[in-house]
Amino acid sequence: MTDAVPLTALHVTSGGTRVYTLPVRAFPNFRANVYLVVRGDPHAPAYAALVDTGGAGPDSLGDLRAGLASVRDGYGEAVGLDTLGRIVITHPHPDHLGGLSALREHTEAPVAAFHSAVPFIEQPGAIRAAWLMQPDAQAVWLGLPPGSELDGRIRRRGSNLSVPRALPVATPLRDGDVLDDLLHVIHTPGHEGN
Questions:
Q1: Is the pTM of this model over 0.90?
Q2: Which candidate, 131, 125, 53, places its Cα nearest to that of 87?
Q3: pLDDT digits over 92-140, tens only?
Q4: CATH of span 9-123+166-184
Q5: DSSP states of 94-127
Q6: Domain locations in the chain?
């Protein structure tokens, strides 16, 4: 796998809303997609939202900036981190949520998140404490001896924070909600588990 990130892709809804797929390096050797949703005149969009944020590393933010530049240069959209009107978090995995803290340095866009992700954003310390209590029970259930490599992996996973500091969520979302008169929330439980 190369470090080069593929170009953005454009999808247009039947109502004319433009959705751009922005690939970012969420982790070393792992790419994730962030989505830019734009409505209105490309030269002065009425709405621009980022769906998910990529990872916490500098490559992810750099790729996001490059993707936005590609949308500006290749499609003529007047968008950037400073023009976002909304950030949407679909679920609390680090490749979807990890870049939120870094984005906070560049945009005041209000955050909307599926309700099960809100505690991970607003109370990351409490979530870490809960995870760190669970590894003992998980290790016993799995029959892992204390101090084993797998026991250590469970503990390391629990000590990682998706966001390093508490951030406010302006809009908790639930199945059936409509966000900003545009985005319809459809709960599709999958690998997130909620």
A1: no
A2: 53
A3: 888 899 899 999 999 999 999 999 889 889 988 766 665 555 656 656 6
A4: 3.60.15.10
A5: HHHHTTHHHHTTT--PPEEEEGGGHHHHH-HHHH
A6: 9-123+166-184, 124-162
